[in-house]
């Protein structure tokens, strides 16, 4: 097979990242390289191709018409490269290679570190790069092999495998409950008290159910954090009613009574957490191994609780 490429494939992928983010700085951060390197690769790519791909001024970066066409091919090349990588990995008896993983920060540093440690211990030929993120990311466009997410898939070229369902419950500190003018016996009362919300992915609708009755909450959000540990501290300090994962992050507090359930007979919808990756990596032994490790840590967490 003859190789007659007039340009560097790596530079083409760098160009794709710049187009997606409309920023050299953001692309450089995601790629883990200096901005000067990104700029140099783009300049070399334009010189090799003999065309202008980008227009830059002090305020914005735009893509030329021909640059947009080149970008569409770059996306396909990335998908093919992932396919080659998956094919090679699938032929190996032991998972090996590097895996880049994005985990929402609301799942917690403890979970991410335990999954990462167990994975690296079980598979000594593997390398792992975990990033805690506070926004929704795309496994292809943002340069990850695997991302953890909670929403429905927006892209049919991706695969989602459920890792676990995160059970949630309403709770507060005993002091906060004692200061209320009357006990909370109906979910409608929650719309009138300060509420502590966890904010990964932005504001969302919440509802509670009891038997066949369902009530959609419209709480007065006093504080929002994209990490359950932060929300738990707000709740412990008596700042409002909040939502916590069932029996995982509040085990000690529930046992000691420093956090108490609110409306325990009313159930919040569980949050399904999926591991999402490109279809081209379906047969990757590295991804399969990481998925099994992520599931196992949840089993161990539940056992500890």
TrEMBL record:
Keywords: DNA-binding, Transcription, Transcription regulation. Residues 7-64 form the HTH lysR-type domain. Gene3D superfamilies: 3.40.190.290, Winged helix-like DNA-binding domain superfamily/Winged helix DNA-binding domain. SUPFAM superfamilies: Periplasmic binding protein-like II, Winged helix' DNA-binding domain. The keyword Transcription regulation applies. GO terms for molecular function: DNA-binding transcription factor activity; sequence-specific DNA binding. InterPro entries: LysR-type_TF_proteobact-type (IPR058163), LysR_HTH_N (IPR000847), LysR_subst-bd (IPR005119), WH-like_DNA-bd_sf (IPR036388), WH_DNA-bd_sf (IPR036390). One of its GO terms (biological process) is DNA-templated transcription. PROSITE patterns: HTH_LYSR. Belongs to the LysR transcriptional regulatory family. This is LysR family transcriptional regulator. It comes from Mycolicibacterium moriokaense.
